[in-house]
Amino acid sequence: MKSLEELARIREEAKRQLELREGTGGPRIVIGMGTCGIAAGARETLMAVLDELGKRNLNNVTVTQTGCVGLCEQEPLMEVILPGRPKVTYGRVDANRARQIVASHVVNGNIIGDWVIARE
């Protein structure tokens, strides 16, 4: 850090990231971060979701983590909950799929059926 402007920029970015994890009322994304999920690449999936939401300036989407769901063979898991619509769980979500799910499902409301493993 070399200036107050840079510190302010870092602070705003940190606040934006925190808002993504604590937001309420809007769309919600839950990433399975149990040990099986992490071993399968869930950290990269989470980072891709946060990056894609940031690129699209989607500040109303809450991103949270959960532990093991018991579907280890389908990890990394990603749940998408849109207000007023049933929860959709996607399986084997790598970083590339995560970005596509954000674009298709979260932004446009179009479920990618081939990757769905459960619907509420």
Outline the structure in words.
The chain is globular. It has a five-stranded mixed β-sheet with strand order 2-1-3-4-5. Helix content is 43%, strand content 18%. The model has no long low-confidence stretch (mean pLDDT 92). The longest helix is centred in the N-terminal third of the chain and has 19 residues, at 4-22. The protein has a single domain (4-119), classed as Glutaredoxin (3-Layer(aba) Sandwich), CATH 3.40.30. α3 crosses α4 (95-107). The chain is of the alpha+beta class and 120 residues long. β3 (78-81) and β4 (88-90) form a beta hairpin. It has four helices and five strands.
Which features characterize this protein?
Glutaredoxin, 5-stranded mixed beta sheet, 5 strands, globular
CATH fourth-tier homologous superfamily: Glutaredoxin
Secondary structure: helix percent: 40-55%
CATH class: Alpha Beta
Q: Strand portion, in percent?
A: 15-25%
Total count of helical runs of at least 4 residues: 4
Instruction: Give the averaged pLDDT, no decimals.
Output: 92
Which topology does CATH recognise?
Glutaredoxin
What's the multimeric state?
Answer: single chain
Structural class: alpha+beta
Helix and strand string, N-terminal first?
A: HEHHEEEHE
Taking the sheet with the most strands, its summary is:
5 strands, mixed
**pLDDT under 50 segments (min length 5)?**
none
Total beta strands: 5
Counted up, domains total 1
Global outline:
globular
Strand order of the largest sheet: 2-1-3-4-5
The CATH level-2 architecture is identified as 3-Layer(aba) Sandwich
- Tell me the distance between the termini: 47 Å
Calculate Rg over CA atoms: 15 Å
